[in-house]
Amino acid sequence: SQQGEEDPQALSIQEGENATMNCSYKTSINNLQWYRQNSGRGLVHLILIRSNEREKHSGRLRVTLDTSKKSSSLLITASRAADTASYFCATDRDSNYQLIWGAGTKLIIKP
Amino acid sequence: DTAVSQTPKYLVTQMGNDKSIKCEQNLGHDTMYWYKQDSKKFLKIMFSYNNKELIINETVPNRFSPKSPDKAHLNLHINSLELGDSAVYFCASSQRTVRELFFGEGSRLTVL
Fold first, then answer.
1. What is the pLDDT, as a whole number, of residue A95?
2. Number of Cβ pairs closer than 8 Å across A and B?
3. What pLDDT was estimated at residue A43?
4. Which of B40, B44, B100 minimises the CB distance to A48?
């Protein structure tokens, strides 16, 4: 079943600007992950944040998690054309190996 | 070296045919998955194997049959293909204690 919902569905910004995407989920989770998918390619893991963490950084990526609001945000700073892709969140709620995926945000970086 | 490789990358076939997609991972992971991604980019888990044992078997038609000959391989066989089976099928792998998934490049199946 689909739990995560990304918002917005699509985002178009100028190169150099920051991009923020949000993910909401419905049930309690163990951790939340963000993945990137370039057009015609497989998904690539970006970052994992555990339920007891509030913020995590990786290069130009910043992820926050608010378990009280059941939401997460992914911030990409100083965007580049190469950041053009779809971004998915996935939550891990139990131990049966099943990730619950959002529908993705399509990010377009205009040069 | 490709970590998760799946073949073929493209598959065009007629309704009613049977086809297989193969997947291999060289990461030493103990868990492998098949996902289906539809035209709206929605990802749906189909199957998952841990150490060759089926652990996730979502509600998919029994025309779909996974097979894991060993920990490094997970194949997907589809019988009597239907138009609605057209999608991109992704293989992925992970280590049980680490929840990060590694995906293959996908196999785009088109049923005519």
1. 60
2. 57
3. 97
4. B100
CA pair distance B63, A9, nearest whole angstrom: 33
B78 closest CA partner among B87, A94, B27: B87
Is A12 in the B-facing interface, judged by CB distances under 8 Å?
no
Alpha carbon separation from B89 to A27, A68, A82, A99, B21 (Å, rounded) = 27, 35, 24, 16, 9
For residue B96, which residues of chain A lie inside 8 Å, CB to CB?
A: 97
Q: Which residues fall within 8 angstroms of residue B93, CB to CB, at 6 or more apart?
A: B3, B4, B25, B27, B29, B31, B32, B33, B101, B102
Q: Select the residue of A33, A43, A86 nearest B99 (Cβ to Cβ).
A: A33
Enter the DSSP assignment of B48: E
* Mean pLDDT within A52-75: 97
